[in-house]
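User: Working on a comparison across species. This one is PKP2 protein from Thinocorus orbignyianus. Can you predict its structure so I can line it up against the others?
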Amino acid sequence: RNMSSAGPEGRKKMRECNGLIDSLVYYIQGAIADHEPNDKATENCVCILHNLSYQLEIELPESYAQSIYMQRRNISSNDKTPGCFGSRSRKVKEKQQDTPLPEEKSNPRGVESLWHSTLIRIYLSLIAKSTRNYTQEASLGALQNLTAGTGPMPFAVARTVVQKANGLPSIRTMLHASHPTVKKTAVSLLRNLSRNTSLQSDIAREVLPDLVSILPESVLESDIVCETAASICYTLFNLTQSSSHNARLLLSANGLPKIITISMNDSNMFSKASRAASVLLYSLWSHTDLHSAYKK
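Assistant: Here's the predicted structure for PKP2 protein from Thinocorus orbignyianus:
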């Protein structure tokens, strides 16, 4: 577990180690089958897999990278990499998201297991069944890592989480976890998932009211609460930017007073959340059909 957080070279060596990833997955599957998702060894295994999934898309061996990105050749390479909210045209973004991964292998081996739907379902199962904070956080964090990039792998993983494995109910439960880092990681995962336009209506329907409910009412008391609030605002931005329906959903969940309060919090410590809330307000105002409702 310590070695897996040693940096890119350490991750590379461990991913290449014959049988290591397969053994970790095998152990966790056994623990879940035996209804023992809370043992320390399971926590260690998940934390290792979490670390090995970090920067995975960038650090993949050339052979995998070629097979995964081969289908993207028709997407213009001249487009700039998107920043926070993306500078690409919607057409390119949608085209990118619709690019499929090569067909999944029924028996993945080694590094292939890290993004396979089998392991994605294992993470979701641990989120639902484990009561151990580190296990929950590592499972959420692994999914966050796998959905972090802009290529076809993160979008394929996102679709598996939301549509194929019905993972949103388990993630939604973690939004109300008492442990602040578990909550923060769940929000960060949702922020990644919400970038996928084809999933936004599902995410808004399932978790938008919950996201609003966990926004702080007033002054933010710590860095981690501030970061979580900023992430929630950016997730809400993604969900409402192109959808007047989702913006109305935010309004009916009484989100506007909270967002205004956060945007007006000008303390340096909380500037990240304040800025995110302001960007969200600016975007919400672009739905002109809702202006009278906002004013009320």
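For your comparison, note: The chain has two domains: 1-63+109-174, 196-295.

User: Helpful, thanks.
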